[in-house]
Design goal:
- This protein is α/β, with parallel strands linked by helices and about 150 residues long.
- The strands form two sheets. The chain has a three-stranded parallel β-sheet with strand order 1-4-5. The protein has a two-stranded parallel ribbon with strand order 2-3.
- The protein is globular.
- About 35% of the residues are buried.
C-alpha cells in the first residue's frame, strides 16, 4: 500500500507544522513522478513547498495516489474544500478526506457539505492521534475497495 500524500491548497504554511506534529517519516516530492521512487518504510508523502493540488491533480489521478487535503480554517475552508475535492475527483484521485486546521468549525454545515471531512484541528501542532487513526482507516478502506474492484 502506497503511503498517503498530504496536499494543501496554495502551498499552505500549515503543511510543515502538521507534518512535524504527526511525528511520522515523510518524504517530500518535487513532482508526482517521484512517486515511482518512494521506498518502503515511509509513512507520509508531501510535495515540496509551494505546490498546489491544481498542479498535481491529473498525475495523482493517473497514479491513483491516496490523498488527504489540508485546508486553512481562515481561508474559506468550505468553498476551498468543495473546489479542490471536485478537482481531485474529476481526475479520479482517491481522496482520503479533508482536514481543516484552525478557524471556526461548524459541524452541521460540514455535514451538509457532503464532503469526507476529518475532525478539525484547532492548530497544526495539536495532538494528531485522531487524524492518524482516521487516516489509516480510510487508507485501508480505499485499498480494500480498489483490490475488490480489480
Amino acid at each position: 500500500m502506497r503511503p498517503p500524500l498530504i496536499l494543501a491548497p496554495h502551498g499552505s504554511a500549515l503543511l510543515e507544522p502538521l507534518l512535524i506534529a504527526l511525528g511520522r517519516r515523510f518524504v517530500r516530492l518535487a513532482a508526482p513522478a517521484d512517486l515511482a521512487d518512494v521506498q518502503d518504510g515511509v509513512d507520509l508523502l508531501a510535495p515540496v513547498a509551494g505546490h498546489d493540488p491544481v498542479d498535481w491533480a491529473q498525475e495523482l489521478g493517473a497514479w491513483r495516489q491516496p490523498t488527504l487535503l489540508i485546508l486553512d480554517g481562515a481561508d474559506r475552508p468550505a468553498s476551498q474544500g468543495a473546489l479542490h475535492h471536485a478537482l481531485l475527483r474529476q481526475h479520479r484521485v482517491p481522496i482520503l478526506g479533508l482536514l481543516q486546521v484552525g478557524g471556526g468549525w461548524d459541524p452541521v454545515a460540514r455535514r451538509r457539505d457532503g464532503l469526507p471531512w476529518f475532525p478539525p484541528l484547532a492548530d497544526p501542532a495539536d495532538d494528531p492521534h485522531a487524524v492518524l487513526a482516521l487516516l489509516e482507516v480510510r487508507r485501508r478502506g480505499l485499498h480494500h475497495a480498489f483490490m475488490a474492484s480489480g
